[in-house]
């Protein structure tokens, strides 16, 4: 078993409900193994500013119920530079921090890799509402964010029903349409616009018009913030609202869920997933492993090499650089391609299903 004096935990990038449950699990599992735990406040910026607190069993008590992150978060652009990464490692040595668990998205994992390469073994835990990390089928915060969207859309549908209106609701997710797709399905939206699938605007508007003709009063369309702006540079969702009104005459309102879905008490799924991932991050470190991201694949927790996870992500997002695949075997590349095509196929399948039965 690897020996550690202290483990540092940080949360970085966009916060996500459930991050606290992960912090609690990492802290408790490490403490149980006689390892001291340091909470680094404000992500990599906090590391560079030496903003740290000792975490003990009591300090992480009750945080499992809280949204946000008690360790705070930040974006720290300077951590991309080697000079600052080296400074981060120096600070870890000064504070006797022998390993880091970093909770966040792919940017956060790049920071973790940098630390590992410079001698501080680090493990990443996927925490982002977007569920946009290809190597894992689940990221902490996704379920809570979607449930928040769900209650907002259900409420909007009621007022639409009363006023015989349509409402277009735009949801976060950066370039990933998962939140929009799932919540669109779960609320019975008549139109769903996500960046992964070419959106047939005419068909979407026809569906809304046809539903209205058949007597449906409350009409819902869910759009992803990742939709490309129109040729005139207009936000897609706002444009869609105008097009619906212009083409059909249906009174249409617009709502943007925004950051509301980043907060709130984590759902049971997020608490349990975060607990499993946090616990596993520590057992991996104790087993001498590092530079891994703790993924969820096929119903199981599965640690995956961070470099592999980052390249797989680039493959899925069509962002591969020239030598990205050089260190992988043909079998690995074939399996990566299969993961990407399965993921795309699954999104197409769900989208088609939602559209087939929406009205
Ligand atoms: P997320 O982790 O949610 O993807 P960001 O992309 O903003 O969010 O990344 C979070 C932080 O991770 C950044 O502010 C930066 O401190 C660190 N980071 C991002 N990219 C790198 C990189 N290439 N090398 C080292 N650290 C990075
Ligand atoms: O990655 C989480 C996320 O909430 C995205 O869905 C969204 O595009 C982005 O972060 C918003 O970032 P910020 O909190 O910097 O406004």
List keywords for this structure.
single chain; 359 residues; alpha/beta; Rossmann fold; 2 domains; 7-stranded mixed sheet; 4-stranded parallel sheet; 11 helices; 11 strands; elongated; binds adenosine-5'-diphosphate; binds 6-O-phosphono-beta-D-fructofuranose
- Percent helix range: 40-55%
Query: How would you sum up the major sheet?
Result: 7 strands, mixed
- Class inferred from helices and paired strands: alpha/beta
**How much of the sequence is in beta strands?**
15-25%
Mean pLDDT, nearest integer? 97
The bound ligands are: adenosine-5'-diphosphate, 6-O-phosphono-beta-D-fructofuranose
Which CATH top level class of the largest domain fits? Alpha Beta
Query: What CATH architecture of the largest domain would you give?
Result: 3-Layer(aba) Sandwich
Q: Tell me the total number of β-strands.
A: 11
CATH topology of the largest domain: Rossmann fold
Gross morphology: elongated
Sketch the topology as an H/E string, one letter per element: EHEHEHEHEHEHEHEHEHEEHH
Helix/strand layout:
Blueprint: E1 6-11, H1 19-32, E2 36-40, H2 43-48, E3 52-55, H3 82-94, E4 97-104, H4 106-117, E5 122-126, H5 142-163, E6 166-171, H6 178-186, E7 191-193, H7 201-213, E8 219-224, H8 236-248, E9 252-256, H9 268-286, E10 292-297, E11 300-305, H10 306-316, H11 330-356
Parallel strand pairs: 1-2, 1-4, 4-5, 5-10, 6-8, 6-9, 7-8
Antiparallel strand pairs: 2-3, 10-11
Helix pairs in contact: 1-9, 5-6, 6-11, 7-8
């Amino acid at each position: 078993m690897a020996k550690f004096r202290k483990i540092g935990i940080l949360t970085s990038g966009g916060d996500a409900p459930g991050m606290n449950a992960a912090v609690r699990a990492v802290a408790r599992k490490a403490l149980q193994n006689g390892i001291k735990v340091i909470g680094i406040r404000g992500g990599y910026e906090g590391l560079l500013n030496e903003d740290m607190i000792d975490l003990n069993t009591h300090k992480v008590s009750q945080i499992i119920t809280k949204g946000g992150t008690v360790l705070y978060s930040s974006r720290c652009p300077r951590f991309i530079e080697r000079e600052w990464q080296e400074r981060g490692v120096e600070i870890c040595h000064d504070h006797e921090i022998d390993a880091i668990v970093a909770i966040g998205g792919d940017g956060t994992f790049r920071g973790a890799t940098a630390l590992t390469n410079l001698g501080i073994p680090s493990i990443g835990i996927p925490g982002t509402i977007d569920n946009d990390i290809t190597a894992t089928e689940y990221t902490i915060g996704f379920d809570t964010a979607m449930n928040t969207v769900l209650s907002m859309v259900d409420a909007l549908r009621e007022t639409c029903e009363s006023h015989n209106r349509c409402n277009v609701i735009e949801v976060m997710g950066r370039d990933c349409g998962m939140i929009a797709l799932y919540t669109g399905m779960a609320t019975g939206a008549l139109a769903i616009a996500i960046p992964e699938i070419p959106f047939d605007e005419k068909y979407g508007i026809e569906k809304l018009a046809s539903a209205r003709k058949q007597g449906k009063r409350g009409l819902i369309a869910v759009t992803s913030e990742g939709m490309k702006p129109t040729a005139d540079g207009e936000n897609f969702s706002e444009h869609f609202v105008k097009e619906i009104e212009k083409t059909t005459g249906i009174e249409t309102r617009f709502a943007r869920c925004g950051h509301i879905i980043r907060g709130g008490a984590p759902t049971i799924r997020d608490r349990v997933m975060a607990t499993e991932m946090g616990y596993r991050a520590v057992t991996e470190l104790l087993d001498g492993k590092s530079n891994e991201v703790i993924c969820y694949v096929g119903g199981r927790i599965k640690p995956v090499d961070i470099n592999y996870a980052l390249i797989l992500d680039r493959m899925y997002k069509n962002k591969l650089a020239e030598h990205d695949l050089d260190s992988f075997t043909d079998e690995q590349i074939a399996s990566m391609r299969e993961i990407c095509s399965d993921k795309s196929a699954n999104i197409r399948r769900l989208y088609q299903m939602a559209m087939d039965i929406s009205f």
